[in-house]
Amino acid sequence: MDVAVDLREAALANLPLCPVAPAARIIGQKWTLQIVYFLLDGKSVRFCELQDELGGVNPSTLSSRLKMLEEEGIVCRTQISAIPPHVEYTLTDMGCQLKPVILEVIRWSNVWLGDRCE
């Protein structure tokens, strides 16, 4: 395969030069994969529950990531009219499609990184 030809064709078609760039822009942000991972079980999760699960995430960072994931169509935000009112988050169908990706990242991490933690 001729990489120069592929790059030229991508440029002519207005495609990113790196095919992972669009996905990396979203899932490459800190906390994003962790948020999606905790939503994979399909249950609705409140903001404070996500914050507890993630541990050290700053509330403004979590809010920013959830807003971005909602705008990208990966997370659904639902306003619950209960007393007290609250918001719950779930994955959309698009977000659920990340499950095999995350499972593969987990597998890769277990094989190559072992028990190293952040």
Overview of this protein structure:
This protein is mainly alpha-helical and 118 residues long. It contains seven helices and three strands. The chain has helices at 3-12, 21-27, 32-39, 47-54, 59-71, 93-96, 99-112; strands at residues 45-46, 75-80, 86-91. It has a three-stranded antiparallel beta sheet. The longest helix has 14 residues, at 99-112.
Short description:
It contains 7 helices and 3 strands.
Supply database-style keywords.
mainly alpha; 118 residues; three-stranded antiparallel sheet; 7 helices; 3 strands
What is the topology?
Blueprint: H1 3-12, H2 21-27, H3 32-39, E1 45-46, H4 47-54, H5 59-71, E2 75-80, E3 86-91, H6 93-96, H7 99-112
Antiparallel strand pairs: 1-3, 2-3
Shape: globular
Residue windows where pLDDT falls under 50 for at least 5 positions: none
Instruction: Give the CA-CA distance, first to last residue.
Output: 38 Å
Order of helices and strands: HHHEHHEEHH
Percentage of residues in helical conformation: 40-55%
Structural class: mainly alpha
Task: Report the portion of residues in β strands.
Answer: 5-15%
Largest sheet: 3 strands, antiparallel
Q: In what order do the strands lie side by side in the largest sheet?
A: 1-3-2
Rounded average pLDDT: 89
